[in-house]
Every structure is written in structure tokens, then in C-alpha cells.
Design goal:
Blueprint (H helix, E strand, L loop, with lengths): L1 H14 L1 H5 L7 H11 L6 H9 L3 H13 L1 H33 L4 H23 L7 H23 L3 H19 L1
Length: about 180
């Protein structure tokens, strides 16, 4: 289900970036309900919303932009709340590491061992897939393993080096300011 909300968010950001940013990952939230009603869907099922958004007419896309403009203040508040939750999540994970280091006087080696295991495993599997043929009938299993390692690799990189969220937020804020100036 989370994949549908992510897909909806990515699609929606091109039409109505503020509305797209206000969608809560995994649940849609108020913004998802607003989008469903704008598209004329009674269900807030992400699969139905995603399908309707992919098949939206130009008139529906215009209506989505109008709804975004009509509710812009509340949508910005929701987007800001989402960003705060995201930042709190990162801070709590990093805060845990600091608390362990302060309590024990040492870094949590398990964190680093796990991170290195995921990173090295990811690159080994990438090299293996590039140079070794996948046994017949095992493609689905190998791809499932690769997907899991890819997600873990992304999480490790995001944890230790930050994420692209701040970049996307900067770009979205710049776009929002430009659209405000255009309306004036």
C-alpha cells in the first residue's frame, strides 16, 4: 500500500506540489481524502486513487490545482507537520546512538557491523549479477534478495549521510515561493 502512496505523491508533485507533499506516507491522510474527492472517487483506497490519477483528464488536473490553491494554507501546515515527523524520526534514531555512547562510553558496534554487512552485501550481489548468470527458475528469488538489499543499502546511506529529503524540500519550497510570486 505504501508503494501506491509514494507513486501518488510522485505523480501529484508535478501537478500540485503542495498537495503532494501533504500526503502522509502509508496512509494518505487528509490530503489523500481531498484528492480522492477531487477526482470523484468515493474510496480512499490508494490503488483506486492511483488509477484515477493516472487516468485523470486535463479538467480533473486543473481541478486538483484549484483545490490545492483553495486549501494552500492548510496543505502547507500538513506538509510542515510531515517534515517535522520525518525529522523527529531521524533524530530519535541518531539520539539512540548518542544515548548508548554516553551510557556505555563506546559506540554501538552492532550498528556499524550491520551497516557494513548491508553495504558490502549489496555490492557483492551487484557484481555477482553483472558477471554470473542467474540459474533458471531462481530469478524471482534473486530479485527479491536484491530488492531487500537495495532498500537496506538506501536506509544505511540515508542514516549515515542524510537523505535527499532535504534537497526535495528545498526545491519544493523554491517552487512554492515562485508560484506565490506568480499569483501576486
Amino acid at each position: 500500500m505504501n508503494d501506491f502512496w509514494t507513486s501518488i505523491k510522485k505523480t501529484l508533485v508535478t501537478v500540485a506540489p503542495i498537495l503532494g507533499n501533504a500526503i502522509l506516507p502509508g496512509v494518505g491522510g487528509i490530503a489523500g481524502t481531498l484528492l480522492a474527492s477531487t477526482l470523484g472517487i468515493s474510496s480512499t483506497d490508494p490503488e483506486a486513487i492511483n488509477l484515477a490519477l493516472m487516468n485523470a483528464t486535463p479538467e480533473q488536473l486543473t481541478r486538483i490545482k484549484e483545490v490545492e490553491n483553495a486549501h494552500i494554507e492548510r496543505l502547507i501546515e500538513l506538509g510542515t507537520e510531515n517534515d517535522k515527523l520525518y525529522i523527529q524520526d531521524i533524530q530519535s534514531a541518531r539520539g539512540r546512538e548518542i544515548a548508548i555512547a554516553q551510557a556505555t562510553g563506546k559506540l554501538d558496534k552492532n550498528l556499524y557491523v550491520l551497516a557494513w554487512t548491508v553495504v558490502i552485501g549489496f555490492f557483492i550481489l551487484c557484481l555477482t549479477l553483472m558477471f554470473c548468470p542467474v540459474p533458471e527458475g531462481q530469478g524471482a528469488v534473486v530479485l527479491m534478495l536484491f530488492g531487500g538489499l537495495q532498500a537496506g543499502f538506501g536506509t544505511v546511506i540515508g542514516y549515515f549521510f542524510g537523505s535527499s529529503k532535504s534537497s526535495s524540500l528545498r526545491n519544493m519550497r523554491r517552487d512554492n515561493e515562485a508560484s506565490k510570486e506568480a499569483r501576486l
